[in-house]
Amino acid sequence: MKANEIMVRQVYKVKEGDTVRDVIEKFIKHRISGLPVVNDRNEVVAYISDGDIMRFIGKHEDHVFGSYFYTAIIKGDNEEFHERVRSLLPLNVMKIARKKVFSVDSEEDIEQIAAILGKKRIKKLPVLNQGVLVGIISRGDVIRHSFQSILQD
Questions:
Q1: Where do the DSSP E strands lie in the chain?
Q2: pLDDT by residue (tens digit) across 99-150?
Q3: Euclidean distance between CA atoms 141 and 131, whole angstroms
Q4: Which residue(s) pair with 137 in the sheet?
Q5: What is the rounded distance in angstroms from the CA atom of residue 150 to the CA atom of residue 142?
Q6: Among 20, 78, 100, 124, whose Cα sits 20 to 30 Å from the Cα of 109?
Q7: What is the pTM of this model?
Q8: Is 148 exposed, middle or buried (0-12, 13-18, 19+ CB in 10 A)?
Q9: How many CB atoms lie within 10 A of CB 139?
Q10: Is 57 left (phi over 0), alpha (psi -120 to 50) or beta?
Q11: Which residue has the higher pLDDT, 61 or 148?
């Protein structure tokens, strides 16, 4: 089974010029947790997930680094939670999106897709055809298509 046989063709995405507000609105409206970020040619340039949002709005603790000769303190957050949440919305999506994106070709085998999702511990993979976004595959898609025929026996 190939990626193009099991991928979801209707891919929600954001453009590299969009804000985090645009991302959050799509997360809420479509009940999703991640989006590919594309350029004007529909090429994937980054990926933003709910985890990226959590890392930004979560409490950042003070870190103390020291040696025999010196001690350095890197301050965590001075602002309140709601201030961090509010300050995130106008940011450009590329400020917090991950630029290293794992993806698969539309002709990739399901076995390899399962391996990538498992080894890299990611939830979704953009599917590309000649470098252009054509679909997305989640862990759930792989599980459904892998076990559906077996369970119906």
A1: 14-15, 34-38, 44-49, 63-66, 71-74, 104-105, 124-129, 132-138
A2: 999 999 999 999 999 999 999 999 999 999 999 999 999 999 999 998 877 8
A3: 22
A4: 125
A5: 14
A6: 100
A7: 0.80
A8: exposed
A9: 15
A10: alpha
A11: 148
